[in-house]
Amino acid sequence: MLLLIDNESALSTAEERFAEWIRWSPAQPGVVLMNVRIPDRGNGTRQLDALIWTPQRCIAVEVKGFHSRQDGVLVVPPNGPWHMADGRPAALHGNGDGHNPLDQVHTNTMTTKNWLEKTTGTRCAVHGLVLVLLLPDQDIPGLDAPRRPPMTDIIIEDFDVFRYYLDRVSDQPIEWTSDRIAPLLDALGLHHLHAADPTALAEAMGEHVAPPPIRER
Predict the structure, then answer these.
(1) What's the N-to-C CA distance of the chain in angstroms?
(2) ∠ Cα 133 171 124 (to 5°)
(3) Is 91 exposed, middle or buried (0-12, 13-18, 19+ CB in 10 A)?
(4) Does residue 217 form part of some domain?
(5) 10-residue block means of pLDDT along the chain (217 residues)?
(6) Helices 178-187 and 101-120: crossing angle, nearest 10°?
(7) Which domain holds residue 40?
(8) What is residue 63's DSSP assignment?
(9) Residue 150 domain-assigned?
(10) What pTM value is reported for the model?
(11) How many other CB atoms are there within 10 angstroms of residue 33's CB atom?
């Protein structure tokens, strides 16, 4: 996977660990943007923790970390803040009255979808993922989330589950190629992050890249 980070110094601790996960997955085809702003209504923008393109999917990712240790099952109700099985509010960044991680990822997913469709002129499906990363020795043995929005998943820290989440649809039709992604990166002003290697996007997406011609002397 090709990892492109806009202003790495602005990443949170949880986001830095997610970036490490991406660096550990060189064989998984895809392009990952981190700390990126997507054009929103009017002249506004919407900040995304991460945006992933695999050949089959576009995924808006909300990376959440605990700011204090809590153990036990994490409960995701249909409405309101997430909480632990004992009733305590989950000490997650962005989890409180008026919004929760699912609300945030849903808004980011719709913002990304609207921008992609406006930019490409075609219908686009965007999936949502909330990735919850834990503190050292924290024990969250399960997730109680029986009702989730369509096309939205939640993963409690597990690198293997994350890789399976990406790989499980690898046999589906290809939706995204380097030729589709490149102009989107340009529109976001991120061309400089991959311009040094003109074949980087194609290689990251698992596409065949012809070797450079041999020049005869």
Answers:
(1) 36
(2) 70
(3) middle
(4) no
(5) 92 94 89 96 92 98 96 94 96 88 96 97 97 96 91 95 94 95 95 85 89 66
(6) 100
(7) 2-204
(8) E
(9) yes
(10) 0.93
(11) 24
